[in-house]
Amino acid sequence: LAGAAAWLRPDALAGAALLGLLAWWEERRFPRRYALAAGVTIAAGLLAAWAWFGTPLPETVAAKRADVAAETAGGAEAARFFWRRASRLAPRHFGAEWRWLLALGLAGLAPFWRRSGRAGRLLVLHAAAVALAYTLLGVPFFSWYLVPVVAALLCGLAAAPFDFARWAGRRHAALGFVAGALVAAVVALPVARSAWRWAGAFDGYGHLDTYRRAGAWLRRETPPETSVAYVEIGVLGWESDRRIVDIMGLVTRAARPYLRARDVAGAFLAAPADVVVFHTRGRMAPLLREPWFPGTFEEVARFRDRDGGGWLALHRRRPGDSPR
Predict the structure, then answer these.
(1) What's 249's DSSP letter?
(2) What order of strands is seen across the sheet that includes strand 297-304?
(3) How confident is the prediction for the chain on average, in pLDDT?
């Protein structure tokens, strides 16, 4: 299972290695069978990826590093860029008190480590490894990167009141119960309040719904061999079932050298497509401003976001024309 997890996310390689080290430390002997099973499973995944994609590991990290390099000088500035973006989401889910909750969660990791067994210790170590890796990698922030970190901090938040209650209960059981309940309430109320507000107000992201509708149109109105160029490719690619040219270079290698210069037109010319997608939130506007674009592509469909003033347009290449 640990080896198979690395098939789904490469950062699970760290978790697989940490689990083996934990077993080695706790049992005082090298876990040979675990190492063999995990190693064979991981190797099989790497070989399968190599055979199918032409590379054993995803190339998205290189594209993401190039994207951040266009906005920062790298190193410490890139790390600050990552965590500054992460901190903007914290008040939305944990309230204005999120810094105090972060400190309490970190403090609670010590008692959680002592009492949680191997699974809890693996969670703490994996969270630390993920936080360190994304600090050093110089990649842009995406919320799912920090799921292991948030999971560990929530466990620390739960452990901190419990540990405080145990300490207070040594003098009097009732005092320990009351003290623990008060601390737990102080911890839980800001989180519950923020979560309730967010859950009540959130109704999905309007632009993703627009991507779905545009993708359905492409599936219905274009031949299967059609290629589509854009910068946010997941929903469009899934819904359209068309070949995607990724202007951000995550899956289209030819576009990657143009990322640092934010040369959208150069990236497109390096990997042209039959359909160009434009959305008001995307980065495609410089391409549409190229002198050759209006004569080569024509708008064939437009979709408005259900929330806000955003909209998406599909531009199809005119018969016989090619970008130049």
Answers:
(1) S
(2) 243-246, 227-230, 275-279, 311-317, 297-304
(3) 87
